[in-house]
Design goal:
By secondary structure, the protein is an alpha+beta fold. It has one domain (about 20-130). Helices cover about 40% and strands about 15% of the residues. The chain contains six helices and four strands; from the N terminus they run H-E-H-H-E-H-H-E-H-E. The chain has helices at about 1-15, 35-40, 40-45, 65-75, 85-90, 110-125, and strands spanning about 25-30, 55-60, 95, 130. The longest helix has 17 residues, at about 110-125. It is globular.
């Protein structure tokens, strides 16, 4: 009898999976190519770049990629006053490149963190110049 009660108690105390756990996305924004000539940090981060393909920014978000890009462009700050926009996207961002990421979404937060790095490195190997945080 005691074993049955403890099993029921354990079953009730397990955390329920969140229905919105697959609410994160990775996204890719095309940047103006002038970033490569104007930013020494960007050039240093992309020694493989040959100037043929585009310059890109890779990020992850719990919002839609369109909403997140708008936040970057507008220079949005968090409720605590922290700048949550990327200066790179604010200055050089042009538009989203959904063909490079839509088949990857949605995912959990931990998966999105890993996918952001994986996607950035994959795009670099393909010859793009990539910035990600």
């Amino acid at each position: 009898m005691k074993d049955q009660r403890s099993q029921k108690t354990r079953a009730r105390t397990r955390p329920k999976p969140k229905s919105n756990s697959l609410r994160y996305s990775v996204y890719v924004i095309e940047l103006r190519k002038t970033i490569y000539t104007e930013s020494a940090k960007f050039r240093a981060a992309n020694p493989q770049y040959k100037g043929v393909l585009e310059c890109l920014y890779v990020g992850m978000t719990s919002k839609t990629p369109k909403q997140r890009m708008a936040q970057h462009i507008q220079g949005i700050k968090s409720k605590k006053g922290y700048d949550i926009s990327s200066a790179v996207v604010k200055k050089y961002g042009m538009y989203l490149r959904p063909s490079l990421y839509t088949d990857l979404n949605p995912m959990t937060r931990s998966a999105a963190i890993k996918m952001e790095e994986h996607l950035a490195n994959k795009l670099k190997r393909l010859g793009y110049a990539v910035w990600w945080n």
